[in-house]
Specification:
7 helices; 203 residues; binds glycinamide ribonucleotide; Rossmann fold
């Protein structure tokens, strides 16, 4: 059984896609052991609760400095002893110690086709604003391993999505979620749970 810890910051639609994937048997052999949010008001925490999953909030604002926050975050991770950490819309930089200790065991969903529109400053709606501004006709989403850089780790899955005339950042964000994110994130977790990435030498 793959024990998964999911980190969230907001609405948690990707968390919901993972929960649904497990409940519908599309993600096999997997259990969400804990959800951590940096934002106590995140709707993602309500989603966790509704499905009987433990959700906790660890907000940097509650700690006197970054080090204290990092320590609390690491403790909350280790206490759950996960096999895999999934960043599902987690908008806080992961402490270096967590990346070191969980190398090749942290994955992230990013709402563009990396290496486009990624790196520092590209998150959430900003990614779609930048894609529309550049005038790309195709965008999409990427699931990748997390390393010390921002969106630089090995790519696991990508899915392309069409940009349509009249798209606003919000409309495009919704289409990228529906047609790409909610599909490839559960798929990547299932691949890891089934040992498929070991065969590819990706983990
Ligand atoms: C998602 O679009 C995810 O790809 C993005 O934040 C959103 C969270 O939505 N993540 C990033 O931009 C990370 N760089 P959700 O809370 O509804 O899953």
């Amino acid at each position: 059984m793959l024990k998964v810890l999911v980190c969230v910051s907001g609405g948690g639609t990707n968390l919901q896609a993972i929960i649904d994937g497990i409940e519908q048997g599309k993600i096999r052999n997997t259990k969400i052991v804990r959800v951590i949010s940096n934002n106590p008001g995140a709707y993602a925490l309500t989603r966790a609760k509704e499905h009987g999953i433990e959700g906790i909030s660890i907000s940097p604002k509650e700690y006197e400095n970054r080090d204290a926050f990092h320590k609390a975050f690491l403790n909350a991770v280790e206490d759950a002893s996960p096999d895999l950490i999934v960043l599902a819309g987690f908008l806080v930089v992961i402490p270096a110690e967590v990346i070191r200790k969980y190398r090749n065991r942290i994955i992230n969903i990013h709402p563009s086709l990396i290496p486009s529109f990624c790196g520092t400053g590209y998150y959430g709606l900003k990614v779609h604003e930048a894609a529309l501004e550049r005038g790309v006709k195709i965008t999409g989403a990427t699931v990748h391993y997390v390393d010390e850089g921002t969106d630089t780790g090995p790519i696991i899955l990508q899915k392309a999505v069409e940009v349509k005339k009249g798209d606003t950042p919000k409309i495009l964000q919704q289409r990228v979620m529906e047609e790409a994110e909610w599909i490839i994130l559960p798929q990547a977790i299932n691949m890891i749970a089934c040992g498929e990435l070991q065969e590819e030498g990706l983990c």
